[in-house]
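Title: Comparing notes on inverse folding

I've been comparing how different people in this forum approach sequence design from structure. To keep things fair, I'm posting one structure and asking everyone to reply with a full sequence. Here's the target:
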């Protein structure tokens, strides 16, 4: 029985999840009860199987409590994805986890609107706090 050459491996599926990335820096928030929305229209990463580039517009929205993400460090952090092999879903969820770990917000949402490839586009949305698994 031959293996299907189009099948993704577990290694490809987990690619990029634990890769070292620049630290997200924060600064002390001075106000309460407002939202921050950060648009990133030029996000890029790489498909872990084909090596082809992926492009997206990311939107990171959160309600800060004590800390806000510093934008230059966020830019450097996101630039590190440029050559990182990672699936869309993993990238969006990892970005959410890293922003939440750095800022500890009341809530957060990361949306990735990925450009079409082969006539198919994807929008991935991850929220924190996360819903519990059934």
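Reply #1:
Here's my take.
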């Amino acid at each position: 029985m031959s293996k299907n050459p189009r099948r993704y491996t577990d290694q490809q599926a987990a690619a990029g999840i634990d890769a070292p990335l620049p630290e997200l820096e924060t600064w002390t928030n001075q106000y309460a009860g407002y939202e921050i929305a950060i648009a990133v229209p030029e996000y890029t990463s790489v498909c872990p199987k084909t090596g082809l580039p992926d492009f997206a517009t990311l939107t990171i929205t959160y309600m800060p409590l004590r800390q806000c993400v510093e934008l230059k460090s966020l830019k450097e952090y996101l630039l590190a994805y440029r050559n990182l092999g990672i699936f869309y879903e993993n990238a969006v969820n990892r970005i959410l986890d890293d922003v939440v770990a750095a800022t500890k917000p009341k809530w957060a949402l990361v949306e990735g609107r990925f450009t079409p490839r082969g006539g198919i586009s994807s929008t991935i949305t991850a929220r924190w706090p996360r819903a519990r698994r059934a």
